[in-house]
Amino acid sequence: MVIPQHIRNLLKSLLCICLFSAVTVLYAQEKVDALKLYRTGRSLDSAGRGDEARTAYSDAINVCLAELKQNPRNMDSYTVYTWSLFRLHRYRETINICNEALKLASDVRIIETLGEAYFYVNDYKESLRQMERYIDMAPTGERASVAYFYAGDIYRLTKRYQKADIAYSAAVHLEPSNSLWWYRLGLAREQSGNKQSAKDAFQRALSIRKDYKEAADGLARLQ
């Protein structure tokens, strides 16, 4: 039986559509898998299973590299890639890849990761610049509270205590259940001489975490 040419052309077109759909689905699954691997790493870290967490982060990086080979402008892949590098404490590499990605687009997720990475290599000036950049671009973003916290830490470590107070206060306003942040706010206020407000912050830290020794010690210093 001879198949007419127009039928053969139609079959070829349908085959191409099916192949394209299959590749698209596979690629989408790869993207989900990279994020899933990263989140698995976070869960393992929280459970104290560090070796397994590092394996999950490394696997996430490999998936992201494969995605970026297919699409070098995939900002979702760059995001999970840099998150995973950061969790592996590969801060210099995180900085390099973040800066590479930001040449393509000003993605706030990568800007915030870059700010954190600079903090851990003690480049406070550049870390603060990136955190402020994130806050300007995403004042109510998912990581806004974290950005304010890092800004507060930088101001406190560089002895700019009033600015630290403002930044930490913004952080706890956005995320009031974080005992560490209240404790750091107390330290900044104590250093700037605001005794009563420092006591209030230490007390808030203790109300969240009753066994917080450092906060209890801070409160005792101010009695």
Q: What would your notes on this structure say?
A:
The chain contains 11 helices and no strands. With 223 residues, it is mainly alpha-helical. The longest helix has 42 residues, at 5-46. Helix 1 packs antiparallel against helix 2. It starts with a helix and ends with a helix. It has helices at residues 5-46, 50-70, 75-87, 91-102, 108-120, 124-137, 144-157, 161-174, 179-191, 195-208, 213-221. The model is unreliable at 16-20 and 22-31 (pLDDT under 50). The protein has 2 domains: 24-122, Tetratricopeptide repeat domain (Serine Threonine Protein Phosphatase 5, Tetratricopeptide repeat, Alpha Horseshoe); 143-223, Serine Threonine Protein Phosphatase 5, Tetratricopeptide repeat.
